Amino acid sequence: MFQELSGGPLPNGRYPDITLAIFPHLREFIVVDTRGLTPAVTLMSTDTVFNDDYYRAVESEFGAALREGGDRPFLHLMHLPNQLDDIVRGVAMNFILERLGVDFHDEESLPEVVVFVISGPTLAIPTEQVVSGFSEMLSGKLDTAAVARWTSELSRLIEQETQAFPVTNESLGESMTDESLDPYYIWQNRN
After folding, report:
1. DSSP character for 156?
2. Which residues are CB-neighbours of 29 under 8 A, at least 6 positions away?
3. How many angstroms separate the most distant Cα atoms in the chain?
4. How do the pLDDT tens digits run along the chain, 191 residues long?
5. How far apart are CA 9 and CA 47, in angstroms?
6. What are the residues whose beta carbons fall under 8 Å from the beta carbon of 81, sequence distance 6 or more?
7. pTM for the full predicted model
């Protein structure tokens, strides 16, 4: 099920290099890094990403984008919200990847990252199905005890997100679309 929710294997039959399971109302998220021989699964805190350096980087990038008006300042201002969205996401991804030891100097080896947002429609799916799919993704790559530990951690975070964001039929109807279960690609580097 996690494969289906996260888009499953990529077109060439493999999983992305890094999968992030984020919970919008929580300060923790799970990172599955499959770049090495053995996948590394990590529980990260938003405090390690969204610190003063992050905010200074966003402010600097946005300040530069704000001043790029050129000879079409109104058109530029109309596009600023999209640029700000790209800046906030891009800087956040860079900070996450930096904490994972990604070398930004070699653009050809930048990892492909899929972000799986666990909220809204995903919370309407039985937790056991999401956890089962997550377990399947890790089985064969980690020992049984590690898989059990991380599926338990995922269950805990899903429960906390569910408590922070109770799913109602009304909110589910507003957020459910054909694309709602597709992975949310923030960073993608396909060669």
Report:
1. H
2. 20, 21, 22, 23, 43, 44, 46, 157
3. 61
4. 344 444 455 566 666 889 899 999 999 999 999 888 888 999 999 999 999 999 999 999 999 998 887 788 888 889 999 999 999 999 999 999 999 988 877 788 889 888 888 988 888 888 898 888 888 888 878 888 999 999 999 999 999 999 987 655 444 444 444 444 444 444 444 43
5. 30
6. none
7. 0.76
